[in-house]
Amino acid sequence: MASTLESIQSAAAGRADRLIDKHGRAITDLRVSVTDRCNYKCVYCRTGNEGAVYADLPIADYLRMARVFVGLGIEKVRLTGGEPLLRRGLLELVRDLSRLRTLDGAPLDLALTTNGHLLEEMAEPLRDAGLSRITVSMDAVDAEKFARITRVPGSYERVLAGVRAAKRVGLAPVKVNCVLLRGFNEDQIVRFAQFSREEGVIVRFIEFMPLEEDRLWTPESVVSMKEIVTALGSYRPVVRMAPNAASETAVRYTFDDGVGEIGIIAPVTQAFCGACSRVRLTSDGKIRTCLFSQSDHDLYGVMQRGGSDDDMVEFIRRTIERKEARHHIGEPEFLKPSRSMVHIGG
Ligand code: SAM
Q1: What is the pairing mode between strands 297-298 and 286-288?
Q2: CB-based pocket (< 6 A), ligand 1
Q3: Ligand 1 atom at shortest distance from the alpha carbon of 83
Q4: Taking a C-beta distance cutoff of 8 angstroms, is the pair 314, 19 a contact?
Q5: Close Cβ partners of 133 (under 8 Å, ≥ 6 residues apart)
Q6: How far apart are CA 247 and CA 39, in angstroms?
Q7: Burial class (CB in 10 A: 0-12, 13-18, 19+), 49
Q8: Measuring CA to CA, how many Å separate 84 from each of 35, 36, 62, 116, 167?
């Protein structure tokens, strides 16, 4: 299997150059949603009344699309959803992706974002299949509050067990992502700092974006980077850390004793669109060039019409060419994107 995949891939590499959009940004980071279904109904993300909206594709089709993208210079693939751990065939997909090589001949940086509900049982098989890293979403470190947010009783205990299992099997560093909303969970900032120090995980706070199914977002609902740093400083003196890479979205902090790591991702108050290296593939095989795009680009349609890998390369190139310069959150002309976060893949 590996040799077939690799030979097709190297043929694609020979045909094509790396993806660069018209703003000069190299596109090296692909996010693939492998299902539109989710077993949580987080109150800031979903209405609670709607289920999956878009189709799941056969696992082999995600692999083919990812392989073609990798032949165009993608170096990092993140699997997401919906909830990716609900997806049958996920382990096989991870195994096959881990056999792909970048244009420089290196293994992919292969990551996954999950709500962690099924992670305790899945952590070891995922690692064995070749996953490099994992990010778990947690919006509180208080069991009652957590269950109110996810609308699933007992969810905190499950997710905590998942985080610990991921750490135990060496899916390190485990990152824990928390979306902060004013009047809702900003009281968790210091608790999360303690959590990072006690559990040995990287906690990342993410500003709330207008990507929810409902209409909750207002500029005032965003807990800004500045406020987060102030809250952390009230707990212990914070120390800014050097970035890992130029395109890194998180600004990193530790504390005066060097224990714990907190990242802050501020797409609203400190947008990083100028360094964006991402492209997304939805569970139904549409390319999205920005979280806030007004339309999708139907790569799966090219496959369904019997398109070759070359046809897909051509379609991807034309699509990436049109990648938006930046988002317009908070500006008068801002339009809500055509899909919400759960149906794009965060
Ligand atoms: N089910 C998986 C999970 O929970 O991580 C993957 C999909 S989920 C949509 C991906 C991430 O998007 C989660 O960390 C979630 O908190 C985040 N998210 C959802 N809505 C958001 C919003 N409006 N603004 C910022 N992040 C959001």
Answers
A1: antiparallel
A2: 38, 45, 80-81, 83, 113-115, 137, 177, 179, 206, 208-209, 211-212, 341-342, 346
A3: 1
A4: no
A5: 109, 110, 111, 112, 171, 172, 173, 175
A6: 32
A7: exposed
A8: 6, 9, 13, 10, 19
Give the distance (Å) from ligand 1 centre to CA of residue 1. 34
Express each pLDDT in 295-304 by its tens digit.
999 999 999 9
Measured distance CA(205)–CA(264) in Å, rounded: 5
Q: Rounded to the nearest whole angstrom, what is the distance from the C-alpha of residue 237 to the centroid of ligand 1? A: 29
How much is the average pLDDT of 5-26?
69
Q: Which of 178, 181, 184 is nearest to 222 (CA)?
A: 181
CA-based max dimension of the chain: 59
CA atoms within 13 A on the CB side of 29: 13
Distance 82 CA to ligand 1 centre (A): 9
CA of 116 to the centre of ligand 1 (A): 12
Tell me if residue 216 falls in helix, strand or coil. coil
Residue with tokens 């993608």: 74
Residue 333: which pLDDT band, with cuts at 50, 70 and 90?
Answer: confident
Please compute Rg for the chain using Cα positions.
20
Q: Hey, what amino acid is at 184? A: F
Q: Both tokens of residue 222? A: 């965003």
With a CB cutoff of 8 Å and minimum separation 6, the contacts of 58 are: none
What SS3 string covers 100-160? Answer: CECCCCCECEEEEEECCCCHHHHHHHHHHHCCCEEEEECCCCCHHHHHHHHCCCCHHHHHH
pLDDT in tens, 192-241: 999 999 999 999 999 999 998 888 899 999 999 999 999 999 999 999 99
What value does the mean pLDDT of the chain take?
Answer: 93
Instruction: Compute the distance between CA of residue 288 and CA of residue 32 in angstroms, rounded to an integer.
Output: 10
Higher per-residue pLDDT: 274 or 68: 68
Q: Which residue has the tokens 């965003």?
A: 222
38 pLDDT above the threshold of 80: yes
Which of 247, 174, 190 minimizes the C-alpha distance to 223? Answer: 190
